[in-house]
Amino acid sequence: MRSRRLRWRLEKGERCDGNVPERVPDNAEIERLIDAVPELARASKPLQLLVSREAPRMRRSLVHTHASPDLPPGSAFELAPGVRCISPEHLPVAMAPRLTDLELIYLLSELLGIYAIDPTSEKGMFQRKSPLTTPERILEHLGALGPEHGTQRVRRALRHACVRSGSPRETKLSLRLGLRPSLGGYGLEVLSMNEPLEVRRIHDRMESGVRKPDILLRGRADEAGGAPRIAAVEYDGRDHATEQAHARDAARSTELTAIGLSEHVVTKVQYRDLDYMDGLAEILRQELGLPRHRVTRKVTEWRRARRAALYEKLEHIDGVRWDGRARERAHGEKDSPAAAPKTSDGGWDVVPVEAYGLG
Fold first, then answer.
1. Of 92, 233, 239, 288, which cross-links 215 as Cys (Cβ 3.0–4.6 Å)?
2. Angle 324-331/297-316 helices, nearest 10 degrees?
3. For the region Disordered, what residue ranges are annotated (predicted)?
4. Region of 197 on the Ramachandran plot (φ > 0 left; ψ -120 to 50 alpha; else beta)
5. Looking at the 3D structure of the chain, how many domains does it have?
6. Is 299 exposed, middle or buried (0-12, 13-18, 19+ CB in 10 A)?
7. Among the three residues 70, 87, 104, which one is the final residue of a domain in this structure?
């Protein structure tokens, strides 16, 4: 799905029926397909193949099989004549058994985002014009599948996934801001990502133009019952390091301020600093008009530990290895958070390194 060759077809939403085979091709057939289809040649081996539940299981050097139910119409797209790949809607269901909850959220965020991880490129990613799928299409697919293994986990993860994120680091920043405190986030409401806002362009005689903030957060409506307060958060990574880029960033900030929208920039150094991020979250809460809740010192310390743990877990996710389960087994961790201390507020829950802004 990250193939540049198939990029336009995927972004166009091409789909076909995914008839699950009842037999596994032999090694000679697999080798011929690998030679004929560039995506199979580049894919890591063994290839992962879906077969019917009645078919024998195989684990060979070139292929591992996985039992699958009959798939709904439109569950695949064609790589080459006779070769089909599961659709973006079905991929998270197929991968759910091997992913942690956080990895599943991260995978969904890429499928719903406007970027694709590409370890072979200089930046470690490329931009898409539009997401591969939408939350609505995924939910429709889950409904058509019925109560199959993995579908409930995908439904839960989808509630937390980012929509229209523009990079892996934007995804991670949004998750840190938006996940509830019990999961290590700050519990802020992410309104949108990279959605267009109309502004007056400074360099174009103040004519109408468009800006697309990385992350928009929504707060409370004002006392008069008007529109809710909004704040923008921008990630300042390697692409913003030049003098020209800083000039563009300054113009963007001024144009957003002119329409009453405050913008907060997070650099790669600040992103790593938990104290800074804690302070930024407090400033954002104040700007958004969100109430403060008194909690015990024990709860405060527990939530901070969760935030530190979320940062570390996100740093390990590169969108290629998917080894969170193995790390948890090695460290005796659990995918779900440890029990939280009781609170007085009713449990309130308000690739190359360049791709992740760490270069």
1. 233
2. 130
3. 328-349
4. beta
5. 2
6. buried
7. 87
